[in-house]
Amino acid sequence: MTRMSNKPESATKVGYLRQHRRFPRTILNRRFHRCRAARHPACWSLLLTFVLLAAGGRAQNSDTRLRWWKGNLHTHSLWSDGDDYPEMIVDWYKQHDYQFLALSDHNILLQGNKWIEATNNRGGAVALEKYLKRFGTNWVQLGEAKGKQQVRLKTLSEFRRLFEEPGHFLLIQNEEITDQYGLKPVHVNATNLRDLIEPQGGNSVLEVIQNDVNAVFEQHRRTGQPMFPHLNHPNFGWAVTAEDFMQVKGERFFEVYNGHPAVRNEGDATHAS
Known about the structure:
The protein has six helices and eleven strands. It is 25% helix and 21% strand. The two termini are 19 Å apart.
């Protein structure tokens, strides 16, 4: 599930997902033969372990019993092509009983100084009005450039403190590495990154996926920070075949279902679902 109107998205819960309005259910599936249909406990134990590791010092819940965690690893905001402010998105997920959320905008981390036009964006005047009503003028930073009203987008480090609660709600830094081979879009979700990863490119769809996946693993090796990649919406643009994906080394997850009408989850007469 993703808080946006017209971009492929995914949501992950270690167990089940709840659908809300225009944000459809999606899951991640592990690409192992022993984990068909994601029913094998080992599949979900890896994701659970990752979420706990990603929480780091912020997860101070002493309860060691296994439990289900509900969250979303593929979400877009006005930092790229989403239709709402990041705080509004995070607020919605927390209010609807999610335990973790990752904002995975295209080829960008929620860092640095970024201003956008206040009404000439995907959210428009309606999104700004709701943003001001929810967070107030003391939080929302407005300005002007070339005679047009601007809004500064808050960074993850700024708004994280408003929402995170140890043992209850966790924000994870993500990026959708948005790459391509020719006209075929190749999007790899990178979860819990420390630094931005630029699209790596390649001489085939398989090579593009492998290079982007390798870049995530290299950052993990260099920093020691828990992180993992997964392939988003493989049927988007008919870009990725099962034969391509099966050859990627180290990639164990992919997005099974996505709510955008262009991602072609069901396949067709010549493409697998």
